[in-house]
Amino acid sequence: MNKFIDRAKTAANLNETAKTLAKTFAARAVDHDDNDRFIYANYADLKSAGLISAGVPVELGGGGADVRALCDMLRIIAGACGSTGLALSMHTHQVAIPAWRWHHQEPSRPMVEPLLRRVVDEKIVLLSSGGSDWIGGSGTAEKVDGGYRITARKVFSSGAPAGDLLMTGAISAEHGKKTVLHFSVPLSAPEVTVLDTWRTMGMRGTGSHDITIDGLFVADDKIPLKRAAGEWHPAFQMIATIAFPLIYSVYLGIAESAREIAIDIAAKKPICSRTQSIAGRMDTALAAARMAQTFMIEAVERNEPSAETINDVMIGRRLVEENAIRTVELAMELAGGASFYRKTELERRFRDIQAARYHPLQKEVQAEYAGAMALRQPIDQIF
């Protein structure tokens, strides 16, 4: 019972902190969006408020928030500023994964604990190289004495201007077989450059620039994982199971905020049956997105990453994507012509929500994976 009470209290406190910050982030969001300006000030606030270390176990000095509480935090923040929510989700899942290992894989504690302690003590920001380092991997790792020489270009590295460590990988072709090596890269290394490439339709404040790695040496003992390129590995089953509910909480938050804006605008006009129908369809789509998000979180909470949890999470991811996008589309329709003006802030949410389409597993691959699972066919190379 005490554990339950502590968890509930942690979630409630994190929720209130996120709501307080969201007011500030909402006031800054227009400027970040209009000027392609990275959310530097928001990162400073996230650090001061303890949200950077919210997912680190209490025993290591962190906030001790579980995935469900972290999802709620990201949903609230994204409702105010989608860019801040998405960038924070990329750091948060890179914290939540080693935190899960610390809780559930005791032999892994010596490996993950130093990183988690640095997040607390130094307030370091972790970057994900996202689609660059999906199952197929990217970049090259040339074997040299004592380690590897890394050359790569990583795209969609959200939060890059504020990052300290890039959690990434590269492909080695030793022994005639492609092997993905996983390691961390300090952004301060002279071989690492953040390029100014992020000019986009939406999510303009995330700073998801390309990062180049030109000849960085990574020692053998700094490579915690090697896996076959181009196929699912148990480590990636864990990573994907935990990461995607957090990332898609952002899109749910954007959809919820679009709904609130549209309802406020519509309430100031005469109500007719057509208006009610649009509002009803909007709320139905939003309810579907919420249910799908809950389904994803429940898959994480089984604490058994597997091909089955990947299937559940990716089905949920697909349903959140489709219904969150539909919610915002209907919010635009409900608000009418007013939605076309930037000052209503609906059009920014319409642009930001489009990014939900582009994370793995995209719809055709997700459908193939789910179908293979249903028909009991191999899924190892469906990604």
Automatic annotation (TrEMBL):
Keywords noted in UniProt: Flavoprotein, Oxidoreductase
Domain Acyl-CoA dehydrogenase/oxidase N-terminal: 16-101
Pfam family, one: Acyl-CoA_dh_M
Coiled-coil ranges (or none): none
InterPro entries: Acyl-CoA_DH_C, Acyl-CoA_Oxase/DH_mid-dom, Acyl-CoA_Oxase/DH_mid-dom_sf, AcylCo_DH-like_C, AcylCoA_DH/ox_N, AcylCoA_DH/ox_N_sf, AcylCoA_DH/oxidase_NM_dom_sf
Positions of the Acyl-CoA dehydrogenase C-terminal domain: 249-360
Name of the featured protein: Acyl-CoA dehydrogenase
Species: Litoreibacter janthinus
Classification lineage: Bacteria, Pseudomonadati, Pseudomonadota, Alphaproteobacteria, Rhodobacterales
